[in-house]
Write the structure tokens for this entry.
Amino acid sequence: MNVILTDTKNQIYKNEFNFVSKKNKNCSVKKYVLNGGQANGMDVIEVNNGNLSFVILPTRGMGIWRAKYNAIDLKWDSPVCGPVHPCFVNLDTENGLGWLAGFDELIVRCGLQNNGAPGEDVVRHNDGKTHQKLLPLHGRIANIPAHFVSIEIDESDETKITVTGEVDEAMLFMPHFRLKTTIETTAGSNSLKITDEVINCGTAEEEMELLYHCNFGPPILEKGAKVVAPIIEVAPRDKIAEPGAEEFYLCEGAENGFEEKVYFYNLAARENGETITMLKNKNSDKAVALRFNKNEMPCFTLWKNTAAVEDGYVVGLEPGTDYPNNRAVERAAGRLVKIPGKSSYKITLEMQAFDDAALIAEVEKEISEIQEDVTPEVRLKTMSE
């Protein structure tokens, strides 16, 4: 069964959709529209595989708003009362920090023309002209509604649910990117898998940046929670993150006035590029893991914002094509992806949730095997020092 929910080209739009599997009673998909407040007009898709449920926001670039695995809530409490419709987000306000007015998702994409800190950079028009422009924090893709959305359910046994979406980031004379995403899960599993293809619809080669801001709060995040990863090298982003850098992997409890700390990782990986990172709670009986390929996303960033709960107590695990610096910095470092005209770049990211200590121990063992004989280098100063 394949149902098109949105297709602007063919003027197709469904306000509601409801599916409950006859073969797997706990599996369901539901689509509806929110009304009221800053969520007014938001399309929402709820997917439940029986153990893992999650909420997709087609109106916000096909991001994942919330998830729940058995009794574990996978989310964080942002000061933003979301989800927020993009019409209420002005990316260029607050010196390019306007993106934060809509930020409260579990998984949000940052890109596609830029991610990271706002700042000036040279923008090239496709007619050859260039000019200086303030690039907004984390780019525009998360605040662009999908123009195509469909749901596919495996008719043979109804165990696989796939949601497909397409989002265009385009402007006349500027790059024209299309994000084509599939988000899939299977009945009774502990995971969701995101497969993204960024298509350069234009004829000229274009620079592209994409980072997955994966954000977790309690109950996995708590004082004593740890980030586990196979590390080649890790360093603080700036001087703010230098104090306590020797325990970069350890999470603090909520602290009034805490200033965010960011650490840049170079991860070890298997020969085929596969790698894993994990956030586990203090007792190692609750965890979430991210699986991705270093050949597709060579950079990993840890964002620790263990401020007061009211101020957004959260830790972000962020695989990406580059680090979230200003685009000019990443260009100078040679980390920007360049997509030729009429070509594309593919990325796969899988999120797994765990509520079993034995399974969490297995993931830790897997990470240790990837680490093998590599001795991690932990820098106490920024990379530039």
Observations:
- The domain at 2-378 is CATH 2.70.98.10 (Beta-galactosidase; Chain A, domain 5).
- The chain has one domain: 2-378.
